Amino acid sequence: MKRIILMSFLLSIGVMLYAQTAEKKWAVGLGGGAYYGNSKEGTGLITEFYFSRYLSSSFDLMLLNNFGLVNSEVSNNIDFNSTFLNLRYKLNNGYIFQEASKVQPYLYGGPGYIFDNSTEGINWDAGLGFKFPLSSSVALFVEGGFVEGLRGEKAVEEGTYTESFWKGVGGIEISFGQSKDSDMDGVPDRKDDCPNTPEGVAVDARGCPIDTDGDGVPDYKDDCPTEAGVIALNGCPDRDGDGVADKDDDCPDTPGLKALNGCPDSDGDGVADKDDECPDTPNGYKVDSKGCPIDTDGDGLVDEEDDCPTQAGPVENNGCPIARVEFDNLQFDFDKSTLKPAATEELNRLIEAMNENPELKVSLYGHADEIGTAAYNMNLSERRAKAARQYLIDKGIAPERIATVQWFGQSKPVAPNDTKAGRAKNRRVEIEEDK
User: Fold this and answer.
1) b/e burial code for range 315-330 (CB count within 10 A of at least 16 → b)
2) How far apart are CA 363 and CA 342, in angstroms?
3) Helix (H) / strand (E) containing 14
């Protein structure tokens, strides 16, 4: 039987050591008081020392020892020594009284083993006590209890009956270790509604991250922790509901585009209305930083309406430059200013080009070969230039479109005058487009 009791104690201690590693919820108690032996009716002093281990809000496991000393009816200084494995039932378990009560009553009891003078054996104890917490680690306690003694002839000098004791003790209990706190937020797991809070995050009494503005986004994730917002925007408000947080929205009261910092773009040109100097740009037109259509060549026609967007040209020609027309010289017979058929054919081609391009203007320059006097040839080149001019006017070309009519006589030959072919080339009227 002794071996069974001893093994039970060792097993209990093993369980408590395992729990210490897993939970670290220990306490040690030390106290003293008086006891009364009901056999000889003697009184004495009693010591109490125990280890306790938190099991649940209702129960603690206790390994308790009592020494009975200097009993008035016993000659020995030590009357008895008894060790118990007790279960303590706490009435401040949240069901009867609050766990944090200032007065914490409890019941206890359990089997033990007693050495009483020259005898020893199995016994038990039971009692009622009260704890008075002074801090989270220190409490005072008082309790009264009954210790069952031994039955037998060796227990007393006369008769056969049980030597039992009544005790009253008081003392101090010190808690040490700490409850398991997986996320290290200062709230034990058993009280932590959010046991996986990231390290360093401030939490409330429930162990959950603080949410100052109550928008469902904890402060450590909330870009606007003091303003209630929406989860999708990391806790920031969005007054106009355009998906851009007010803090990033250049137009917080008008729905707009995320790409434009929350501002609208009525014409869809990529420039916010507030910055758009041309808010009605047709869809698809390329615009500059001011929101206006681009006119690359600066000819007054925007690129999308310009057939030649990189070459300046008149609006009448759809923004394209007018092609410079090259015309052959008008050739004349010797000492004549009469237009030859080939010359009128070339002038007709010029007239056609000028009709197609109302902006086209020309200049006429008359020349002669060097046969004859210079004065005569000057007059002859004048008559040749004016003959070409009159032909154009007669065919409907406005005189102002003939910008220049000049004559140079024999002063500007294009070929040597010492050959017949050369002199024929010099008898001419040159046609040039006016720039």
Assistant:
1) eebebbebeebeeebb
2) 19
3) helix 2-22
Rounded Cα–Cα distance for residues 54 and 24 (Å): 9
CB 222 within 8 A of CB 213: yes
Cβ neighbours of 144 (radius 10 Å): 14
**388 contacts 364 by C-beta, under 8 angstroms:** yes
Query: Mean pLDDT over residues 72-78, rounded?
Result: 69
pLDDT in tens, 5-30: 444 444 344 433 333 333 458 999 99
Residue whose entry in the numeric block shows the structure tokens 């000393």:
69
Classified as helix, coil or strand, 5 is helix
- Tell me how far CA of residue 225 lies from CA of 70, 218, 241, 285, in angstroms: 68, 8, 19, 43
Task: List the one residue out of 140, 167, 139, 165 whose CA is nearest residue 150.
Answer: 165
pLDDT digits (tens, 9 = 90+) for 336-360: 999 999 999 999 999 999 998 888 8
Question: What is the dotted CATH code of the domain comprising 330-433?
Answer: 3.30.1330.60
User: Burial, 302: exposed, middle or buried (Cβ in 10 Å; 0-12, 13-18, 19+)?
Assistant: buried
What topology is assigned to 2-176 in CATH?
Answer: Porin (2.40.160)
Q: Please enumerate in sequence order all residues whose Cβ is within 8 A of that of 181, keeping only pairs 6 or more positions apart, or say none.
A: 187, 188, 189, 192
Rounded to a whole number of angstroms, the CA Rg of the chain reads 60
State which amino acid sits at residue 406. Answer: Q
Query: Minimal CA–CA distance to 241: which of 252, 228, 225?
Result: 252
Judged by DSSP in three states, 197 sits in: coil
Where do the domains of the chain lie? Answer: 2-176, 211-259, 265-319, 330-433
Chain centre distance of CA 406: 79
Could you tell me where the beta strands, DSSP code E, fall in 1-103? 26-37, 43-54, 59-69, 78-90
Residue 112: its H or E element: strand 104-116
Q: What is the pTM of this model?
A: 0.46
User: Residue 363's beta-bridge partner residues?
Assistant: 404, 432
Beta bridge partners of 50: 29, 64
411-to-407, 408, 427 alpha-carbon distances in Å: 10, 6, 12
Q: Are 64 and 180 in contact (CB under 8 A)?
A: no
Backbone angles phi, psi at 82, to 5 degrees: -135, 135
Measured CA to CA, the distance from residue 190 to residue 336 in angstroms comes to: 124
Tokens 């009956």 -> residue: 161
Of 379, 359, 351, residue with least CA distance to 367: 379
